[in-house]
């Protein structure tokens, strides 16, 4: 003991997270899927802790909903922090588990975790609505596994 402070060994753990190159690969996959269908989208990628890693939007005055980027970030946080599709939490709320309203983020369909053996982040595609968002998000998440 030195002075009045005790020292204790510090434990640590390594957290794997998606890289910037991985972020853009995921975003490119989402835009490729959207392009096949003529959809104009925003894509959000967060790290394993739910913090913004990358954001991209279709750069056009196309009448997209103005909150799609902000909404996307919240859905991505839901998927990353809770380690499951953001749409699953919407299902819980609609089927008698209202406590999920208090979970972090936004429990709406469209966000999925990015996994490479463990959750390394999450991706959300927003702007094509519901099942279409999910279709593009699945294509984007597959870019991590390639």
Automatic annotation (TrEMBL):
Domain of life according to the entry: Bacteria
Pfam families: HbpS-like
Protein name: Heme-binding protein
Matches recorded under SUPFAM superfamilies: GlcG-like
